[in-house]
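Workshop exercise sheet. Pairs work together: one partner reads the sequence aloud, the other fills in the structure field after running the prediction. Swap roles for the next sheet.
Pair: D.N. / O.F.
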Amino acid sequence: MMLTFAAQTEVIMRDLRMEPRKLPKDLWKCFRKFSLARTPHEQRMHLFNQSAVVGLANISKPFPLKFVRDFLWSSSTNGLSDRVKGDLL
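Structure field:
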């Protein structure tokens, strides 16, 4: 997923709530070589993968319950339900 510079700047400011800084190309290559820097997309994926798991067992409000049911229905129609772990409902 390759974003333009303007789109990456917007992602950094809006989604990651950070201020983007332009690095010299050689410094960027060095950081990337040793996994010291991430692209905006990689950072979003990192934050998502490190986020806390939310339990769905005690859902009592209508919107999240409908969302989960719709997700399960949608995933069952295209074969994704085989990869969903756990007993959601």
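Discussion prompt: The longest helix spans residues 62-77. What would you look at next?
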